[in-house]
Write a structure and sequence with these properties.
Shape: flat
Order of helices and strands: HEEHH
Number of domains: 1
Radius of gyration: 18 Å
Strand content: 15-25%
Helix content: 40-55%
Number of helices: 3
Number of strands: 2
Structural class: alpha+beta
Largest sheet: 2 strands, antiparallel
Length: 96
């Protein structure tokens, strides 16, 4: 049962990866807007610049594509990666 769960997690991870790639490379992009945050590289030493985010509200794409274009899609991607890594490395208590 555990092996099936691990396989399902990794399949979901790869499907999510494909969908994120697809919506970012083959679907139209929305206008970018400034979030008001300043982001600095190299441990805050610079270069620094404003953070921009894509506005997907008025795009003529399906809602599932909007999900994967936003940070929610990346959150799901990281969660599946973390869960797959943890479940794959976890030892059963019955092993000698």
């Amino acid at each position: 049962m555990k092996r099936v769960l691990i396989i399902l997690i990794w399949i979901s991870f790869f499907i999510t990866s494909f969908l994120i790639y697809y919506v970012h490379h083959f679907l139209p992009e929305g206008p970018s807007y400034s979030t008001g945050e300043v982001v600095c590289m190299n441990d805050e030493r610079g270069p620094c610049g404003e953070k921009y985010q894509e506005d997907v509200r008025n795009l003529d794409i399906p809602n599932w594509a909007k999900f994967f274009k936003t940070s929610d899609g990346w959150l799901l991607w990281w969660a599946l990666l973390f869960a797959g890594g943890i479940m794959s490395n976890k030892k059963d208590g019955n092993e000698g």
